[in-house]
Amino acid sequence: MNDTILISIMMTVVGAATPILLAALGELVVEKSGVLNLGIEGMMLIGAVTGFAVTSIVGNPLVGVLAAMATGTMAALLFGYLTLSLTANQVATGLALTIFGIGLSSLVGEGYVGKTIDIFDSVFPAALADHPYWRLIFGYSPIVYFSFVMTIVVAWFLKRSRPGLILRAVGESDTSAHSIGYSVIGVRYAAVAFGGAMAGIAGCYYSLVLTPMWAEQLTAGRGWIALALVVFSAWRPWRLLLGAYLFGAVMTLELHAKAAGFTLVAPEFLAAMPYLATILVLALISLRKTGGSQAPACLGNSFKPST
Predict the structure, then answer these.
(1) Total domains, the chain
(2) pLDDT band at 289 (very low <50, low <70, confident <90, very high)
(3) Which residues, including other chains, have CB under 8 Å from residue 22's CB and lie 6 or more apart?
(4) pLDDT tens-digit map of 150-200
(5) How many whole angstroms separate alpha carbon 112 and alpha carbon 131?
(6) Distance between CA atoms of 66 and 181, rounded to whole angstroms?
(7) What is the CATH number of the domain that holds 140?
(8) Is the dihedral of CA 99, 207, 75, 279 positive or negative?
(9) Residue 180 contacts by C-beta under 8 Å, 6 or more apart in sequence?
(10) Within-domain flag for 301
(11) Is residue 65 part of a domain?
């Protein structure tokens, strides 16, 4: 294996891991506040079709990313209104959001199927972005670098900042946080909105960078992988980063195994591994045994302020 092929594989891993990392970071903050949002896939699809549609109309991918972030936030706030204000069941509402996102994205994207746009590529000079070796550092979309920055920001926010401490307190004991004057519902609304924005950006990464085109269910279930990754990481941002790139490596391995005609392990089995792991984690979530003491104590519980 020569250097060029190795660098191409490594860049493919980065491309596969980035949207999962972004969506999982958003969900991590949401779950730390005590809310379980299973609608990541739906929000990603809404962000994907919005980003593609706006970029194809306006011609500016940055505007497309901002639009995807806005629509992902709006979808998340709809979930928040139903679960936080109306105390609807979080699991059922999250699943409904996923179904809604799949249907809405298919409807909105019907006129864009098969169309292509210019890829949202590196902002660095071509001498660096296209260099045989330096492209491993400078050859990515700005969204990739944004994902690294957000990993640092989320880790600092949750561990070092006062608002992060409040958010964690709300997730661990909502009644105690409420009793000392913190707005549990307000904190959770903010967390849910952030999770939606991150899912929207993750979704538009597929339609603006990886493809770049629109097709129905473009995200191909990656939202569920992001959800499982939060549990795999034990709700820790740095483990989340590592896990996202592990998943990205598995996905890339499957693609290269097919291309190389590798038959010792069926490529289809490698392709199914992330989803099998996701099913296992979702089953463990339902038993409330995954992650031990790392899981927020109030995860998935509705909160009604006492009068």
Answers:
(1) 1
(2) very low
(3) 143, 146, 147, 150, 198, 199, 201, 202, 205
(4) 999 999 999 999 999 999 999 999 999 999 999 999 999 999 999 999 999
(5) 33
(6) 34
(7) 1.10.3470
(8) positive
(9) none
(10) no
(11) yes
